[in-house]
Amino acid sequence: MSLQQFISEALSPWMKKDGPDSDIVLSSRIRLARNLEEYKFPLLASMEESYATSKHIGEALTQDEYTDIGSLEILRIDDMKANEKRVLVEKHLISPNLADHSKHGAVLLDNDEAVSIMVNEEDHIRIQCLLPGFQLGNGLEKANQIDDWIEQRLTYAFDEKRGYLTSCPTNVGTGLRASVMMHLPALAMTQQLNRILPAINQLGLVVRGIYGEGSEALGNLFQISNQLTLGKSEEDIVEDLRGVVLQLIQQERAARENLLDQSRLQLEDRVHRSFGILAHSRMIESKEATQRLSNVRLGIDLGLIKGLSGNILNELMILTQPGFLQQYAGEVLSSEQRDERRATLIRERLKLEEETNE
């Protein structure tokens, strides 16, 4: 596949599949950080050393296929335009750090876009596996299989006492970052998140926005992940996160039921008002669009809106981001132009979905 094929569709193929508890947990991600023994870590490497590392990894991982996912396509960050990198960030296929600060960075992708192997990010290799819904265990199993496949071809930096060595001390040990993307509108509406989120941080977990560290929690979407990787096994890290996520799922469902029982009219008004704005606006800012989409998604999940699938909202969450808007326009857009195109795109997409389901 070419770069254009990877950036032409807002939804990755894996995102179109159903997963457990997908009304609340949109996706599960497992990321493993690894470095090569014989090369300087990316933060200390020169441009020439970084190029040699990237070349070595690319050749090692593209010369034959991994059985379960087929061949991997390598995309060089240096060959991409700024907006092309932005689209890959919006699809969660690369990190903002790889897009903006890497030295001779690259990414290897499978056709399903469920496997992303970043090269020369903060570490030499970052293996990322994405699955729909709540599937941390399956994600860990898949990531470990890919990790073993890579280790047959490359030699990792590993210490018998400390485990896998990484650029950031918080990743030393297993190098594992497990995370889930959760949609928590009812807990946000009932202001329970103000109490819950600090408690989660005290459990050794961290809550971030939709694009990870430093990003804002738009559209009531929260990324919850482990904070430490040293001193625990991969299975224990995943199980600790799983336990907290199960509690959040229960609390979000209880909050949704309470809203239906106690404030149904207000909830219906909020949901349908948001749908009306999305269906008829001529201009809409990104922040408002994501909040309105969150309300409509909640309405779909609770059966208050018929004839729309949850996937249409997942698609629009990505499709209305600045990178995608400019990718489809084929030009750089001003803020006002993006607001106009965002509104037009949402109107047309919602109309098409309604016509398809008539």
UniProtKB/TrEMBL annotation:
EC number, as in UniProt: 2.7.14.1
Binding site for ATP: 27-31, 92, 126, 177-181, 208-213
Swiss-Prot/TrEMBL GO biological process terms: phosphocreatine biosynthetic process
Family: Belongs to the ATP:guanido phosphotransferase family.
The name this protein goes by in its record: Protein-arginine kinase
Reaction(s) catalysed by this chain's protein: L-arginyl-[protein] + ATP = N(omega)-phospho-L-arginyl-[protein] + ADP + H(+)
SUPFAM superfamilies listed in its UniProt record: Glutamine synthetase/guanido kinase (SSF55931)
Keyword Lyase (UniProt): no
Motif (RDXXRA motif of the pArg binding pocket involved in allosteric regulation): 338-343
Regulation of protein activity: Appears to be allosterically activated by the binding of pArg-containing polypeptides to the pArg-binding pocket localized in the C-terminal domain of McsB.
Molecular functions (GO terms): ATP binding; creatine kinase activity; protein arginine kinase activity
Gene Ontology terms: cellular component: extracellular space
Organism superkingdom: Bacteria
Role summary: Catalyzes the specific phosphorylation of arginine residues in a large number of proteins. Is part of the bacterial stress response system. Protein arginine phosphorylation has a physiologically important role and is involved in the regulation of many critical cellular processes, such as protein homeostasis, motility, competence, and stringent and stress responses, by regulating gene expression and protein activity.
Organism this protein belongs to: Halalkalibacter okhensis
Residue ranges occupied by any Phosphagen kinase C-terminal domain in the UniProt entry: 24-255
Keywords: Allosteric enzyme, ATP-binding, Kinase, Nucleotide-binding, Transferase
UniProt KW ATP-binding keyword: yes
